[in-house]
Amino acid sequence: MQSIQEKLQKIVCDQTLSPQQKARYLSLEAENMLPYPLLDTETTKAFATGVLCDLVEGHAPYKPRYVLPDYSVVLTQGSEYLELEAPVDLDEAINCLMIAYHHVPSVTGMPVYIGHLDQLLLPFCEGVTDDQLYRKIKLFWRYLDRTLPDAFMHANIGPQDNPVARAILRVDAELQQIAPNLTFCYDPDISSDAILKQATDNIIACSKPHIANHPLHQAAFDEKGYGIVSCYNALPVAGGAGTLVRLNLKEVALRSTSVTDFLTQKLPYYSGLCFRLIESRMGYLFEQSNFFDSFLVQEGWIDTQRFTAMYGIYGMAEAVNLLQDMQQSSGRYGHDAQANELGYQISQALAQLVGHTPVKHAWRGRAMLHSQAGISSDVDVTPGVRIPYGAEPDPVTHIQALLPHHRYYDSGISEILTLEETIKNNPQALFTLCKGALAAGFREFTANVDSNDLVRVTGYMVRLSDIALYNQQQGSRTNTTVLGAEAAAGTHILERKPRVVSHEISPSYG
Amino acid sequence: MKSAQATVSKVLNYSCVDGPGNRLVVFLQGCNFNCRSCHNPHTIGLCNHCGDCVPACPHKALMLIDGKVDFVPHNCDQCDACLKACSINANPMVQIMSVESVLARLLEHHLMLDGITLSGGEATLQADFIVALFTAIKADARLRHLSCFIDSNGQLGRAAWQRLLPITDGVLLDIKAIDTQLHQALTGRPNQRVMQSLSTLHQARRLHELRYLVIPGFTDQPSEVQALAELVLSLDANIPVRLNAFQHHGVIGPAREWPKARQHDIQVIVQQLQQAGVREIITPAVYV
Questions:
Q1: What percent of chain B has pLDDT over 70?
Q2: Residues 6 or more apart from B92 whose CB is under 8 A from it?
Q3: Cross-chain Cβ contact A429/B16 below 8 Å
Q4: Beta strand ranges found along A273-410 (DSSP E)
Q5: N or C end: fewer C-beta atoms under 10 angstroms in chain A?
Q6: Do A455 and B286 touch (CB under 8 A)?
Q7: A363 and A303 in a common domain
């Protein structure tokens, strides 16, 4: 086993990391030399064996996982701590935000929420032409990507159709940057079809924005509102989430003897342990870390009472399929009505457990249920309630299969539809799919349009890899592909970490 | 009265390549052309219950009961081994669907759909079903917003089109070749009826787009492309022309040895059509 010094040495001299990335990994190592917040034996065991997971948040939570400041505070009052006057025009407002972001921590050290930007900036747009607005947003966007390079940094816009939202969508499609991530909050009674169409056209251009069902989210929160941050987590604005703890449903199913045992014994048992882990991490953050002595609280950017705890789940697909095997049913999750129904039953049971269990320090005294997107160390387990990759049915069937889950996951349900490239010739299809899914009760709509392996040519699906294999057997017409591949294998030229990364996806070194 | 029924090869809940927006597509079984380049040859024939496919199925999804091939969808793994075993380009997995069952499917998904397209095979061979289905869709307040389209090879006669057109919103018309001898060579039939359909559909304002399959060495010849342009211009330069690229997936027989149409091949034709004055040309989003 390598000593801690060896590991630190390895980080310091790593060929692929920037100095900033090294500093971050070093700080994580230091934090994790501290003892973990106190846990009982049963919870420790569930944690150690992978039934529970804390997403490598660190041993000593000295900042909430997600912070969603109410940026309207600094834009209307300025900040005494930061020695900022209240801005009076658009340049000053954007400048204030650019400063503010560097004082908002999160699990990655970078802000995950940069505000509901159109609502924040519209009051400063009087007399600003669309062209001026476009230029300013473009510089702002470039600044965000270059100085806060985290793919989970998230901006919100909508539901109104307005010049700021339009400028942001235009710039986002044009620049094709990874950061910031973007959510358009859609309300069929407020948003125009034109702005939704611009949003879905953007999905075709750059797989962004994510579209949130505004009325559904609004109903789950209060008048202060919500924000969508990171990988599609819905959280209270002027607050956030203290922690995100995950329950691995596949591991729970592996420890069950039947569907009844799963639903009536093992799920409540491991859920109880999940709450113990949540309580222990929330306790440390609220009672020991002194985080809430921050100017963010004193000046009213955030409110200590508005931090929830996220109760995440993953591995629904594997859990359902294991339970189906136990009752000698061959139907698979995502494809079979009985299997899907079992999944809905599990989601309902989880929602009841979360709804009935008090959590100290949490907003409204309860955790919030979340279907979690996964991290790089997840092996053989599907994120959240998703249908396993490569086994997804067509998008309409896919949406219908997952729809009944959506009502249960108040703090977000990370689901990504992969659409084949042929949709580029028919953007109306994506618009209808999105609008229809939200009208049917989908909480969020996220789609990727990329060079997917599956392509529909004339109504039948073909697999590009099959064709590639076929072509390969015929011999390649050019040799450059092979040379390129050899160079990549020999020189590690592809291994340097990209400048913009998803820090939550790789939360520790090595 | 017993409702109309159709012999259906496959239903897709999602398609963005069969007309405007997202469409539910019903592929009807059976075709009156025998295109050498067909990408779905198993939709051409009708099952004669010979039973050759039954032992070919590795998943016990096919059985011979009282001399009829019976399909058990639950067991099917969609491996398509039965299609390879079939000597007459038929499909033992066809299902008989009533108008009501298609309506039920539309009602389930209508929020996410712009419309329905009946494709094939050749959809118009089951015209009674189309009339019954489209009439029912237009009579249902919940489904009326869905546009009703047909994808056709154009072999249908003028009188039959007159039955369909009042309840059809648009037709995607395939034209395999402009030169009738080439058409005969590629499909087994001359193209006079297709030309007649083109004119009928255009006059009735139901021609949504003209679809042209580019097969290198056959339909990409300059004279043929010029004839296509002239045909379009004789009607309306704004008729959308969709160029599809010939590829090998699904193709059987000697046509598998024909070269695929590459992006470059399509671009050459786009240029020629544009120079001739064709205004709206749609090219493939993906080449395989």
A1: 99
A2: B47, B53, B62, B69, B71, B82, B86
A3: yes
A4: 307-314, 368-371
A5: N
A6: yes
A7: yes
Chain A environment of B10 (Cβ under 8 Å): 459
Query: pLDDT tens for residues A219-235?
Result: 999 999 999 998 789 99
Contact check, Cβ <8 Å, B40/A459: yes
Provide the chain B residues 159-218 that lie in CB contact (below 8 A) with chain A.
none
The residue out of A188, A207, A229 marking a domain boundary is: A229
pLDDT at B249: 87
Calculate what percentage of chain A has a pLDDT beyond 70: 87
pLDDT at A389 over 90: no
How does the average pLDDT of chain B come out, rounded?
95
Q: Say how far apart CA B235 and CA A100 lie, in whole Å.
A: 63
Single residue among A210, A229, A248 that ends a domain in this structure:
A229
B288 near A CB under 8 A:
yes
**Nearest chain B CA: its distance from A427 CA (Å):** 7
**Which residues of chain A neighbour B248 with C-beta distances below 8 Å?**
467, 470
Q: Does pLDDT of A502 surpass 60?
A: no
Same domain, residue pair A109 and A218: yes
Residue A475 shares a structural domain with residue A407: no
CATH class, range B5-42+94-282: alpha beta
Quickly name the fold that domain B48-85 has.
Alpha-Beta Plaits (3.30.70)
Burial class of residue B38, CB neighbours in 10 A (0-12, 13-18, 19+): buried
pLDDT digits (tens, 9 = 90+) for A293-317: 999 999 999 999 999 999 999 999 9
* Structural domain count, chain A: 3
B252 in A contact zone (CB under 8 Å): no
From chain A, pick out residues whose CB is under 8 angstroms from the CB of B209: none
Inter-chain touch A458–B12, beta carbons under 8 Å? no
Burial A423-447 (b: 16+ CB within 10 A, else e): bebbbbbbbbbbbbbbebebbbbbb
Instruction: Inform me whether the pLDDT recorded for A415 exceeds 90.
Output: no
Put simply, the answer to whether A422 touches B16 (Cβ < 8 Å) is yes
**Given CB atoms, is B63 within the 8 Å cutoff of chain A?**
no
Could you tell me if A57 and A92 lie in one domain?
no
In this predicted structure, which of A482-486, B55-59, B187-191 has the lowest mean pLDDT?
A482-486
pLDDT at A109: 80
Q: What's residue B36's pLDDT?
A: 94
- What does the radius of gyration of chain B's CA atoms come to, in whole angstroms? 19
The residue segments making up the domain with residue A15 are 1-33+465-510
- Contact (CB<8Å) A432/B112: yes
Q: What is the ipTM of this complex?
A: 0.91
Q: Which residues of A are less than 8 Å from B250 in CB distance?
A: 460
Q: What is the mean pLDDT of chain A?
A: 88
Confidence of residue A483 (pLDDT cuts 50, 70, 90): very low
Please give the share of chain B, as a percent, with pLDDT higher than 90: 91
Partners of residue B288 in chain A, C-beta under 8 Å: 455, 457, 462, 464, 467
Å between B157 CA and nearest CA of chain A: 25
Task: Give residue-wise pLDDT tens across range B170-218.
Answer: 999 999 999 999 999 999 999 999 999 999 999 999 999 999 999 999 9
Q: How far apart are CA A24 and CA A11, in angstroms?
A: 10
Q: Distance (Å) from the C-alpha of residue B108 to the closest C-alpha of chain A?
A: 9
- Whether pLDDT at A426 is above 60: yes
Residue A283 CA to residue B232 CA, distance in Å, equals 74
Q: Same domain, yes or no, for A312 and A203? A: no
Q: Cα distance from B180 to chain A (closest Cα, Å)?
A: 24
Query: Which pairing describes strands A461-463 and A239-248: parallel, antiparallel, or unpaired?
Result: unpaired
CA-nearest residue to B114 within chain A is A432
For residue B211, the distance in angstroms to the closest alpha carbon of chain A comes to 12
Co-location of A357 and A492 in the same domain: no
Same domain, A28 and A46: no
Residue A422 domain-assigned?
no
Taking CB atoms and an 8 Å limit, are B288 and A462 in contact across chains?
Answer: yes
- Specify whether the CB–CB gap between B42 and B90 falls below 8 A: yes
Which residues face B147 on adjacent strands? B115
Residue A436 within a domain: no
